[in-house]
Write a structure and sequence with these properties.
Blueprint (H helix, E strand, L loop, with lengths): L6 H17 L2 H6 L3 E6 L3 E6 L2 H9 L1 H15 L4 E6 H23 L12 H13 L9
Parallel strand pairs: 2-3
Antiparallel strand pairs: 1-2
C-alpha cells in the first residue's frame, strides 16, 4: 500500500478525522483517541495506534472496522478500507519501505555505464518520495 500512497489522500482522511470522531459512539471514539492516519492511497489508509492493545481491540472488532470504513466513505465520498498498526511496528514498516525504495533507486541510477540524464541523485528522489508519503511538514531530513 505504501508504494501507491499519496499525500492528497492522507490529507483528505485527516481533514475529515474530527468529523469521523463525532459520528462514532463514545466507546468507538475512545479506541481512536490516540490513533492517527499516517498514510493513504486512493482506497486504503494506514491507521497508527499508540498502543498495541488498542490496535488489536479495534482490528478484532468487525463491527468497529465496518463502522469506521462506512463513515470515512460517507465523509470522503470514497470507499476506503484501513489497516491498523501499532506505533512501534509502524516505525519499522516505514523504515523498511524507505530503505527498500532507496535501494531500488540506487540500483537503477548507479553503476558502471549508467546513463547521465541529469536526474536528481538517489537521495534526492528518496527524499521527494518520502515527502510524498508523509508530507513535507512531517519530514525531517538529516545529512
Amino acid at each position: 500500500m505504501l508504494g501507491v500512497a499519496k499525500k492528497k489522500d492522507l490529507q483528505m482522511i485527516r481533514s475529515v478525522w474530527s468529523d469521523l470522531m463525532s459520528m462514532l459512539m463514545a466507546s468507538q471514539a475512545a479506541l481512536l483517541n490516540d490513533a492517527e492516519p499516517v498514510a493513504a492511497s486512493d482506497d486504503t489508509f494506514v491507521l497508527k495506534f499508540k498502543h498495541e492493545i488498542h490496535c488489536q481491540m479495534a482490528m478484532d472488532n468487525t463491527s468497529f472496522v465496518e463502522t469506521v470504513e462506512a463513515n470515512i466513505s460517507k465523509l470522503t465520498q470514497t470507499n476506503y478500507s484501513f489497516i491498523g498498526i501499532p506505533e512501534d511496528q509502524w516505525h519499522d514498516v516505514r523504515e523498511n519501505f524507505i530503505k527498500t525504495h532507496a535501494a531500488g533507486d540506487e540500483e537503477h541510477t548507479e553503476g558502471e555505464g549508467a546513463p547521465q540524464t541529469g536526474e536528481p541523485e538517489p537521495e534526492d528522489s528518496f527524499v521527494s518520495e518520502a515527502a510524498k508519503l508523509v508530507g513535507e511538514d512531517l519530514l525531517e531530513v538529516k545529512e
